């Protein structure tokens, strides 16, 4: 997830400029947070499971991204599994208070690590229970994960700078997610194993849930939108945040194609969903 809003980017950019002008030996100036940032913090203040209705549950605020559970007639489908085994396990236990139906499918919306690193504990739990789990993603996603490995060291450093990981609590207004968010202490990057891929659009059924996977390049070129027609529910991955689209990351990730992104938003909007 790219939760830094445009105002945060401006805030960080202006802070860096001020530090540079004063010399690097001085402590950075603490700037009062923009009101929009305070509003964003208020919106995502507490981690919670949101019961969207019709068997859809969204775990929001626990981690960098959302983890979503769809309860079908014979099992459950999970969309994205957060950034770490630690957080995925925690949220999965919360989901298990709602239903004990077998895990039958995981959709990974794109290659960013905060959307699939939690696959491992869920798949291990399924294996221990004798459940077979389909893992769905766009045909390019696993390749992009592998390619990402090459630049991992420099991206980790730059991400720490981008997300304010080295700032004190006082200086870090909301960790870009919410005031209580703390990065996982057990972050281990695991490769992504996918069992079902698609190219442009495909329909799958698992656990009694029929859903479409739609290729919607935007925040990343492999972005998948999940559409469940029977529930009128759409899951746009990171193509839509509660913030200005992160068209270019200050950590130096590849340029995001704006034309692709807005065309994908049109595709998403034209589905006519009641829930997102
Ligand atoms: Zn993302």
UniProtKB/TrEMBL annotation:
Alphabetized Gene3D superfamilies for the sequence:
Metallo-beta-lactamase domain
Name assigned to this protein? Metallo-beta-lactamase domain-containing protein
Pfam name, any one: Lactamase_B
The record's section on SMART domains has: Lactamase_B
Annotated Gene Ontology MF terms? linear primary-alkylsulfatase activity
Matching entries from PANTHER family are given as: ALKYL/ARYL-SULFATASE, METALLO-BETA-LACTAMASE DOMAIN-CONTAINING PROTEIN
The chain positions of domain Metallo-beta-lactamase read 64-275
Keywords, in A-Z order: Signal
Source species taxonomy: Eukaryota, Metazoa, Chordata, Tunicata, Ascidiacea
One GO term (biological process) = dodecyl sulfate metabolic process
Under InterPro entries, the record lists: Bact_Alkyl/Aryl-Sulfatase, Bds1/SdsA1_MBL-fold, Metallo-B-lactamas, RibonucZ/Hydroxyglut_hydro
Q: Output the SUPFAM superfamilies linked to this UniProt entry.
A: Metallo-hydrolase/oxidoreductase
Q: Which residues cross the membrane?
A: none
Signal peptide range equals 1-21
């Amino acid at each position: 997830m790219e939760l830094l809003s445009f105002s945060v980017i401006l805030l960080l950019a202006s802070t860096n400029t001020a530090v540079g002008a004063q010399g690097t030996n001085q402590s950075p100036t603490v700037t009062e947070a923009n009101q929009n940032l305070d509003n964003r913090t208020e919106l995502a203040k507490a981690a919670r499971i949101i019961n969207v209705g019709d068997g859809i549950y969204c775990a929001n605020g626990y981690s960098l991204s959302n983890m979503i559970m769809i309860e079908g007639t014979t099992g459950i489908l999970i969309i994205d599994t957060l950034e770490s085994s630690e957080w995925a396990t925690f949220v999965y236990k919360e989901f298990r208070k709602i239903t004990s139906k077998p895990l039958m499918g995981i959709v990974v919306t794109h290659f960013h690590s905060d959307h699939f690193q939690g696959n491992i504990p869920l798949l291990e739990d399924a294996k221990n229970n004798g459940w077979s789990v389909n893992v769905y993603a766009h045909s390019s996603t696993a390749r992009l994960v592998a390619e990402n490995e090459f630049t991992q060291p420099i991206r980790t450093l730059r991400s720490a700078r981008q997300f304010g990981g080295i700032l004190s609590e006082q200086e870090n207004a909301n960790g870009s997610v919410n005031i209580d968010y703390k990065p996982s202490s057990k972050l281990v990057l695991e490769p992504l194993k996918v069992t079902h891929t698609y190219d442009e659009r495909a329909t799958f059924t698992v656990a009694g849930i029929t859903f479409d996977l739609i290729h919607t390049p935007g925040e990343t070129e492999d972005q998948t939108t999940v559409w469940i027609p029977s529930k009128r529910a759409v899951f746009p991955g990171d193509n839509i945040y509660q913030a200005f689209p992160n068209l270019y990351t200050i950590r130096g990730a590849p340029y995001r194609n704006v034309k692709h992104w807005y065309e994908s938003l049109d595709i998403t909007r034209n589905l006519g969903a009641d829930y997102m």
